[in-house]
Amino acid sequence: MNENHQVLFRKYRPQFFKDVIYQDLAVGSLQNAFKTKKIGHAYIFIGPRGVGKTTIARILAKRLNCENPDGVEPCNKCLSCMEITKGNSNDVMEIDAASNSGVDNIRDLRENVKFNAMGGRYRVYILDEVHMLSSAAFNALLKTLEEPPPHVVFILATTEYHKIPETILSRCQDFHFRKVPVAVLQQYVETLCVKENFKFDSEGLFWIAKKGDGSVRDTLSFMEQAVVFTDGNLTGAKLRKMIGYHGIDTFIELLEDILDPARSAKIFEKLETFFQEGMDLIKFTWDFLEFLNSLLLIKDNLADRESLNIPVEDLQKLKLQFRELDREVLILLAENLFLIHEKMNQMKLRSSYEVKVYLEIQFRKLILEREKPSVSGLLAKLSDLTKQIQSDIGNLSEAGDKETEVKKPVIPEAKRPTAQIPTNVNKPTATTSAALDEKPSPPRQETPKETVTSSTPDTETKPKSSADPNEMEKLLKEKFAGMEVDPGQFKNL
Ligand SMILES: [Zn+2]
Fold first, then answer.
1. Residue 38 Cα, ligand 1 centroid: separation in angstroms?
2. What does the pLDDT average to over 256-277?
3. 82 CA to middle of ligand 1, Å?
4. pTM above 0.90, yes or no
5. Which of 128, 158, 264, 477 sits 20 to 30 Å CA-CA off 392?
């Protein structure tokens, strides 16, 4: 199997401009240079690793020296082309600037530049990682770039544009290379799978592409490992196992367990199973948190595939499945999980057992939090209440109160954290005590804050029929203490 290693990337290294994926901008410009016969003497290729800079530099070198070019493409058959492919052409020098960063190396290069091309027409110097050159070396290089011999072409490649001196940049034509999107990589990997007779499914391809993180080279080297790990069976299930990801079905189930009080026991059964299976529960927590965050993005139509750990096929499914789920609930959960995850990292728990116990406690707290009334739930209740009040007012209109219109509720202005941090277990679970009222205000009323009806002692006789806006406001303040609410939500009250 080891023979397969490295082979994929080499085997499928593009030899023609047309085979390079995604870098149309750079490739198009270079092809135009050949069409218009305006070949520059110095190019700088800028972009992340593994996206084709060196590959394109080699194709360019080939095309420059090709004996039988086919339009803008090299033939890949003539002696010059074949030598370049094999890496033993005397006219194409690949220099790793990272290990030849000194001024002496560049002086040698300047001496070398004077010689004419041996076989082909051009001497091509490919300087990889050129940002690693010392400043003296850059100066020496600059002299050559200022007066390049006509038969010389420099191709500088770098991942770090900002480290290249302006003087060098101004002498070069710059070409920007981009990270390859997951969808493009996924498609590319699929074509290779077909060629190589690997079994695969769409999710498997997604994970391979995702792990490549925009780099074709990294994608293919991960693919090679995956082929070994899965024995050429690149399915989502096997790849998830390989990278230690649990799959969205697990997360969907867990989220449903949390949301449904009748299912909370399942959370702990799951944790136990994961623990027994030797799963990394800290990573699991993070993955679940990412999942919740993705759900939020999906709900807001901000789901950009590049940043999500969710195959595109599942995006729509998730959107439908959790259509009804309140944003506040999701945010609360995600925020709590974030804190749990952070805490676990800080605590340096000694064993996976400790992690499990800690998580069990935290999940219990989460469930308690969950059982607190949600803002939306409160809104529904309030809406009912308001209707009731309005109808009562209608009935009592002879009282002559001009304020028949219920004043719009005022939201507590205090910006307080949206989530109750799970570490505060001592908090009463039913209604969060209204810290707003507890501030410096004099102890004029020892208001019980349990329920809507008992919260206003002055009017406890008939709270519903009281349309006093101050009472409404107080009531709302208590109910909403600790929650941020978009005032827009009250419009229909
Ligand atoms: Zn050729």
1. 19
2. 92
3. 7
4. no
5. 477
